[in-house]
Design a protein that fits this description.
This protein is α/β, with parallel strands linked by helices. The chain folds into two domains: about 1-105 and about 215-260, Periplasmic binding protein-like II (D-Maltodextrin-Binding Protein, domain 2, 3-Layer(aba) Sandwich), CATH 3.40.190.10; about 110-210, Periplasmic binding protein-like II (D-Maltodextrin-Binding Protein, domain 2, 3-Layer(aba) Sandwich), CATH 3.40.190. The chain is built from eleven helices and eleven strands. It has helices at about 1-10, 15, 45-55, 70-75, 125-135, 145-155, 165-175, 185-190, 195-200, 225-235, 240-250; strands at about 20-25, 35, 40-45, 60-65, 80-85, 95, 105-115, 135, 160, 180-185, 200-220. The strands form two sheets. Strands 1, 4, 5, 6, 7, 8, 9, 10 and 11 form a nine-stranded mixed sheet that branches. Helix 6 links the parallel strand 8 and strand 9 (about 160). Helix 3 (about 45-55) packs across helix 10 (about 225-235). The two termini are about 25 Å apart.
């Protein structure tokens, strides 16, 4: 009832009726969040979430796919109203609004091992002790978690070869490393490039570490009410079973923000 009343009020507004939300996303395969599916259509958890919330607001939605740096420039200039998959930083807060209720997901980092070594390599905290025992690595330039970054700064021997996540999986398969760090969705993305990768590599049970909070960031050059109205409609959507069903559809349930993470 509350959602219905809210949306009715919003739809009565001439401004809202005329709204087209222009959203920038990275021109890359960021499955399961943002990607081109087998039917050559833009899809993913973020994409369908934006479509659902905008649909409930009565807004038209336009996606623009750019390289990441251009997406951030477009957000700063106001060329686009919002961008998805954006981590908050002091620099970005100068030109973008990161409202707590516009948090899309919280990235989590895990360790991957070869399936055939599952009986040998087990996760036993603390993580640092494990990193000293086993040969571990992460792709150079990739963010994993503050804990992992702090360990590297302390001199813990975590290698950082200049490779992509997919190339790092190949190095894992060839026994260059015992375990490699990656986002919880990394195996799904890399499996599209490396046939049968999921038959050779698996996540290490129990190894799950918090990462970055990813937002739908709204341009400060756009009308402020856009971010606020989207946040309220999105917050109400999260109270419905359809929200979790959407997450299950894209297998991102474990990445949904917990109540204390909306900040």
């Amino acid at each position: 009832m509350r959602l219905g009343l809210l949306l009715s009020c919003l739809l009565l507004s001439p401004y809202i009726q005329a709204t087209t939300l222009v959203v920038g996303i990275e021109d890359a395969n960021n499955a399961p969040f943002e990607y081109i599916d087998e039917n050559a259509q833009l899809s993913g958890f973020h994409v369908e979430l934006m479509r659902t919330v905008c649909g409930r607001l009565g807004w038209k939605l336009e996606f623009r796919r750019y390289p990441w740096k251009r997406t951030m420039r477009a957000l700063e200039s106001g060329e686009i109203d919002a961008a998805t998959f954006v981590a908050k930083s002091p620099e970005r807060e100068q030109f973008a609004l990161f409202l707590p209720d516009n948090l899309l997901h919280v990235s989590r980092t895990t360790l991957y091992i070869k399936r055939e070594r599952a009986g040998e390599i087990r996760y036993q905290p603390p993580l640092e002790q494990m990193a000293w025992r086993w040969r571990t690595a992460l792709p150079n330039g990739y963010y994993m978690s503050d804990e992992v970054l702090a360990m590297i700064e302390r001199g813990v021997p975590i290698e950082q070869p200049t490779v992509t996540q997919s190339q790092l999986f190949i190095m894992l398969i060839s026994d260059r490393f015992d375990a490699v760090f990656g986002a919880t969705s990394a195996l799904t993305r890399a499996n599209a490039e490396i046939p049968d990768l999921d038959q050779q590599v698996q996540r290490l049970d129990g190894a799950l570490f918090p990462g970055k909070s990813m937002y739908a960031a709204f341009s400060r050059a756009a009308p402020a009410q856009l971010a606020e109205q989207f946040a309220e409609a999105y917050r109400l959507f999260r109270l419905e079973p359809a929200y979790r069903q959407l997450a299950q559809r894209f297998a991102v349930t474990e990445l949904l923000p917990q109540p204390g993470e909306f900040q």
